[in-house]
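FAQ
Q: What does a multi-component entry look like?
A: The components come first, one per line:
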Amino acid sequence: DVVMTQSPLSLPVTLGQPASISCTSSQSLVYSGNTYLNWFQQRPGQSPRRLIYKLSNRDSGVPDRFSGSGSGTDFTLKISRVEAEDVGVYYCMQDKDWPHTFGQGTKLEI
Amino acid sequence: EVQLVESGGGLVQPGGSLRLSCAASEFTFSDYWMGWVRQAPGKGLEWVANIKQDGSEKQYVDSVKGRFTISRDNAKKSLYLQMNSLRAEDTAVYYCVRPNFGSWWFDPRGQGTLVTVSS
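Then the predicted structure of the entire assembly, as tokens:
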């Protein structure tokens, strides 16, 4: 199975400051020109919400302060200026290979 | 707007069975792979199973193989998960998922359905 490793697991941030979450996969997530790495946000008490798909494509309605980058096996989710509504747990997920796998989650707190 | 509504969860004893359902709306259900993802209380996310558009291909995570069966009824726009021989470690909220723009997606308004396996 592809192992997804996130860091840090806990991320204290200051409002208005940038934040960054790293994700590493045990195998390349590149296939046919696409990188099958997605980012999800789960606010307290809510279902997961996809923020970024295929490495760097932002979902509709996702603020442009969120961005995804990386290549091959190393990936980053960046928040340019953290807002209070960004509190929650962030997961990376690969859907290149079966079984699809998630990182452990990074808890972002103000 | 695309909607996925899960149901069928509840309290069941170890060794028991339960059937989950997911009602889909506002998209052509038969055009999409569908899947189930679960989240144990206070834990992370785990993929459970996927099924191809016509039901001809199914994928399961090792921990549920031989115990869970994913199925679909395209005429009813519904996805199912038959769970047998349930164990305490199957206790989780189960979410129905589908691809969107070629990658898997949760309905952010979905609540999932809670399965509790306990005596």
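Q: Is there any commentary attached?
A: Sometimes. For this entry: Chain B has no helices and eleven strands.
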